[in-house]
Amino acid sequence: MKRNSLILIITYFFILTHISHAMQTQNNKSIICKKITAVQKPNAVKYLTNDHVVIGGQGCSIINLVTNEEKKISNFDCSYVALDPNKKKIAFSYDKTIELYNAETNKQEWFSKEKYPIHSFDFSHCGNTIFLCLAEDPRGNHIISKRNSLDTKDDDINNSNSAVIALHPKKPTVCVAEMWGDLLIYQSYDLTLEPRLVFLTHHNSHCQVSSDGLIAVGDPDGRVISIVDSNIKSHIYQSIRSRKHEMFIRMLFYPRGSVLAVSSMLLRGNLPRHLIRYWDVKTSALKLIYTTIQLNFSWDHDFSFSPDGKEVTIAFENECVSCFVPWQIRYECGTKEKFPLMLFLLKNYVDKHQEILDQDIPNDIKLLLANTFFKTFER
């Protein structure tokens, strides 16, 4: 009984000291943890695993973040990259061609030569189909079409408006954001069905969908991002607006929870600066959780989170930069504040029983218990 109590107490103690140490360390150290220069002119970046990223630019490569080893999978200039939900297959495009690469077999599975340039694309929630947005002509006509190894082309959408697409990561939902202000929500299994229409008060240039069905739509001027809940049939929605001298660049949902990361360029002064703001968009108030340190960059072309949510890699003009995700984003709000009294009591207890604690419980067991308990407070 005494041993079980000691294990529980020491677990809490390590959790509390780890919280305080993590917060202090993150506030003091540089936000940049790694620079990646293997791929020139990076346009796209996606995490394959926690230690591997796919970068597209002048060629397309898989980079091992631990050893810096590069595996080239294409020599063509790469415009867009997408991964299937299981992160086993890599799709990348250049001009009118899209290729599918199998990361397990290290072989090309198929490619498709389109009639029109590829504007954007994404995988379906089940991972066996790619949805393409094709730029039919310079006037803005776009075609939304499906592609897979069977080359299905049976229910294309012809859209007279410039458009971008985003797919729900867990449900058969395709979101089409039109340039001139409408958001169309289709069922991916049959694009001929009448879509749900959401009227927006601004033009649209990019779109993202969270795992719980929240849709973020941004305008081309970088001034406003609207949050639409696809689970509710309503035309009422909240919006995030940029601050003075700030321009939104792009956005991406954090892997867990309803946190939207928005990259921005600050235009004040002679040299532009880059930062990321994290917003809790599940609440009606759209709460700003954290703003990162400003970096000496301007425009970014893409950014991606590691599967464990600990790092984010950003593709800038001439290099990619990996940064630590803020502690406040990885864990639920108020995690640290839940333990102040316990921290005081445990410190006093440990001071009196340090010898017993050190002898009875190995350090690796203490850390295992602390890390296991921390999992309960992750988003």
Structure commentary:
The protein is of the alpha+beta class and 379 residues long. The chain has a domain at 2-26 and 335-377. The protein contains four helices and 27 strands. The strands form seven sheets. It has a four-stranded antiparallel sheet, with no helix packed on it. Strands 5-6-7-8 form a four-stranded antiparallel sheet, with no helix packed on it. A four-stranded antiparallel sheet has the order 9-10-11-12, with no helix packed on it. Helix 1 crosses helix 3 and helix 1 crosses helix 4. The radius of gyration is 23 Å and the shape is globular. Mean pLDDT is 81; it is low at 23-30.
Provide key terms for this protein.
379 residues; four-stranded antiparallel β-sheet; globular
Question: How is this structure best summarized?
Answer:
17% of the residues lie in helices and 42% in strands.
Give the helix level as a range of percent: 10-25%
Largest sheet: 4 strands, antiparallel
Global mean pLDDT:
81
Spans where pLDDT lies below 50 across 5 or more residues: 23-30
Which descriptor suits the 3D outline? globular
How many angstroms separate the termini? 33 Å
With strands numbered from the N-terminus, the spatial order across the biggest sheet is: 1-27-26-25
| Class from helix and strand fractions | alpha+beta
Number of helices: 4
What would you call the quaternary organization? single chain
The fraction of residues assigned to DSSP E strands is 35-45%
Q: In angstroms, what is the radius of gyration?
A: 23 Å
Count of extended strands: 27
